[in-house]
Amino acid sequence: MEKLIINGGKPLNGRVRVSSAKNAVLPIIAATMLASTPSRLVEVPHLEDVHTICEVIASLGVKVTRDEAKEEIIFDAANITATEAPYELVRRMRASFLVMGPLLARRGEARISLPGGCAIGSRPIDLHLKAFEALGATIEMGDGYVLATAPEGLKGNQIYLDFPSVGATENVIMAASMADGKTIIENAAEEPEIVDLVTYLNSMGADIRGAGTNVIRIQGVKELKGATHTVIPDRIEAGTYLIAAAMAGGDVYVENALSEHLKPVVAKLKEAGVRVEEDVDGIRVVSDGKVKAVDIKTLPYPGFPTDMQAQFMAFTTIAEGTSTVMETVFENRFMHVDELKKMGAQIRIEERRAIVDGVAKLKGTEVRATDLRAGAALVCAGLAAEGVTKVTQLSHIDRGYDNLVGKLKGLGADIVRVDE
């Protein structure tokens, strides 16, 4: 079993560069299926999820050519040869469901197994399916699969999302980009990853306006051509390094971090007494590890990101006073609580609220990453803890962090990955 072994209590110092965003690159890779000519993505992160989505679209006939040295991937989707995404791939990652929109647009049919991913809540796909039906698709479900068909093509329509789901917004944008007529998505997600997807699609010849607001207007086009695109920096990876530095103490500059995408995280760190400096190239954190309690509540963008909740809860475990953490986006995203308690954290759960009484020091022990962001939270906790922390179930962390050990080592962390 592979483990991270962290000898904690050492301050972090130096510079660390954030990779391209996992949550932006996955839908953009799915969107390459819409192009009749090759697309090139630049600075693609080395993540297990990227490998999985590439396998999914390759199984559908997309030619995927990766240049590891340049961190570039070329996608040639001229010939989509299949419309069914294999179960063994889709079950590994929920984002695989994002191929349904492009398949409907290009081939008028898609058969995809119900998706997998982190077990952080139900995350139903009904918003996706209702939207596809509004665009004229027929939906059938059975044997763990969803079959969507639109043999006459998709038709533009007005769609209201009951919740501003990022995945549903992305899937509908991709499907509607080649639909007949105009589509209006109301109560759309506003995340930066949506804006990045639309930037890529518009460079391919799509006609999409309003990305980054809650109303997106799409005029369908007949054909999209491939384009070259550099994916935005990963705001969640950036936020994780900010938390790590704030907890362990030290002076860390996070390069390629866009403060515009991290306003609630930066605001809460400042409220807790951490020195945070922002400029056009990144964000600097200076901390002595002594911080004050703060309250957070996760919300859709531009609110506090649910993907930073676990890391910030780890941060509050060593804050002076009592903090509250309210999770409103996913109903099962407190699985890291029991692991943090093993390290001496004082946390109690009341439905969707965690109440955290700060302790002077966490104690190193063996813990497991129950999901992607929980794993990141435990790494942050281990860096600040006394003694040795061992983190297991690293497959979760590998899904979303490119070279985590190497980057932390570059900041002076005593961390190794071993196979025991």
UniProtKB/TrEMBL annotation:
Binding annotation for UDP-N-acetyl-alpha-D-glucosamine? R94, R123, P124, I125, D126, L127, D307, V329
Q: What keywords would UniProt list here?
A: Cell cycle, Cell division, Cell shape, Cell wall biogenesis/degradation, Cytoplasm, Peptidoglycan synthesis, Pyruvate, Transferase
GO molecular function terms listed in the Swiss-Prot or TrEMBL record: UDP-N-acetylglucosamine 1-carboxyvinyltransferase activity
Gene3D superfamilies registered for this protein in UniProt: Enolpyruvate transferase domain
Q: Which Pfam families match?
A: EPSP_synthase
Q: Catalytic residues per the record?
A: C118 (proton donor)
CDD domains the record matches: UdpNAET
User: What protein name does the entry list?
Assistant: UDP-N-acetylglucosamine 1-carboxyvinyltransferase
**Organism in which the protein naturally occurs:** Veillonella criceti
**Gene that this polypeptide is encoded by:** murAA
